[in-house]
Write a structure and sequence with these properties.
- This protein is an alpha/beta fold.
- It folds into 2 domains: 203 residues, NAD(P)-binding Rossmann-like Domain (Rossmann fold, 3-Layer(aba) Sandwich); 39 residues.
- The chain contains 9 helices and 7 strands.
- Strands 3-2-1-4-5-6-7 form a 7-stranded parallel sheet, sandwiched between helices.
- α1 packs across α9, α3 runs parallel beside α4 and α4 packs parallel to α5.
- The longest helix has 28 residues.
- The protein is globular.
- The two termini are 29 Å apart.
- Bound molecules: NADP nicotinamide-adenine-dinucleotide phosphate.
- This is SDR family oxidoreductase.
- InterPro entries: NAD(P)-bd_dom_sf (IPR036291), SDR_fam (IPR002347).
- Belongs to the short-chain dehydrogenases/reductases (SDR) family.
- Keywords: Oxidoreductase.
């Protein structure tokens, strides 16, 4: 299938590893001129040939730095992937252990970063009939599984996608959401990250815990999702092949969510 993306321009947030890096790789392979942003510019991101911008996207200043530089570098934005999320403040904590500063930090990164990048990109996206994909999570549909602030922020991000699709669809901008289940990234694989902390919390050895995830999470396919599979879905939705798809939320979770 020809996605017809050659010579388009894109901004991808949270691009240094995981789903963001896989998305940058897929876009550059399709001939897209990409700006990728994260706090750390990894060798893997540099190797993609994308333009890179180091910025803390949990702050308004960081997003301004990214979007000002991206607009200069690219001359305009056709495609925006609001992928950055989770981050340092998503921990397996209950509601009573989640104080106001943590709620604020989680919302800054998981919701307001997308609000701010989208606001800055919209004039260009409207001019170019562009497209946005926001990366949410099945936590927006399964909030009981926690962590509480993250799930609430992702539910808000999914709702934001629908609002944006409604408001800017008539001006030619499509907005869709991708909601992954467990994906093989550092969120789970880093022993000091979320997965390592969840494993420690249940008294399990990290590697053994990772092995048990498909069964423990009820993943119908029996395996977790690869970042490249999420990237393929994101890039399809960005492309004109998906030209009449907008305001949707696409779950990619191997069958974890059992409801309609
Ligand atoms: N992996 C999963 O199982 C899963 C499931 C559902 C949804 N998701 C969602 O998918 C998205 C990507 O997750 P992932 O698994 O690929 O995560 P990841 O491997 O931890 O990558 C996160 C990316 O975001 C960047 N980042 C984190 N904090 C940042 C900040 N303050 N400013 C700028 N960049 C920042 C990281 O780079 P630096 O640390 O260098 O800044 C990195 O490039 C997130 O929105 C996450 O919520 C993931």
């Amino acid at each position: 299938m020809d996605l017809n993306l050659t010579a388009k321009t894109a901004v991808v947030t949270g691009a240094s590893r995981g789903i963001g890096l896989a998305t940058v790789r897929t876009l550059t392979a399709e001939g897209v001129n990409v700006v990728g942003a994260a706090r750390t510019i990894t060798p893997e991101l540099k190797e993609t040939g994308a333009h890179t911008i180091a910025a803390d996207l949990s702050t308004a200043e960081g997003v301004i730095t990214l979007m000002d530089s991206a607009l200069i570098e690219l001359g305009g934005i056709d495609l925006l992937v609001n992928n950055v999320g989770a981050g340092d403040d998503v921990e397996p904590l209950g509601f009573l252990d989640t104080d106001d500063p943590r709620w604020t930090r989680v919302f800054d990164l998981n919701l307001l970063s997308a609000v701010r990048t989208t606001r800055a990109a919209l004039p260009s996206l409207i001019e170019r009939s562009g497209s946005i994909v926001n990366v949410s999570s099945i936590n927006s549909r399964l909030p009981a599984a926690g962590p509480v602030a993250y799930s609430a922020a992702k539910a808000a991000l999914t709702a934001l996608g629908k609002s944006l699709a409604e408001e800017f669809g008539p001006q030619g901008v499509r907005v869709n959401t991708v909601s992954p289940g467990v994906v093989r990234t550092s969120i789970w694989e880093d022993p000091d990250g979320f997965g390592g902390k969840v494993a420690a919390g249940v008294g399990a050895e990290h590697a053994a815990f990772l092995q048990r995830i498909p069964e423990a999470f009820g993943i119908t396919t029996g395996r977790i999702t690869e970042p490249e599979e999420v990237a393929a879905l994101i890039v399809f939705l960005l492309s004109d092949v998906a030209g009449n798809i907008t305001g949707t939320d696409h779950v990619i979770d191997g069958g974890t969510v059992k409801t309609l």
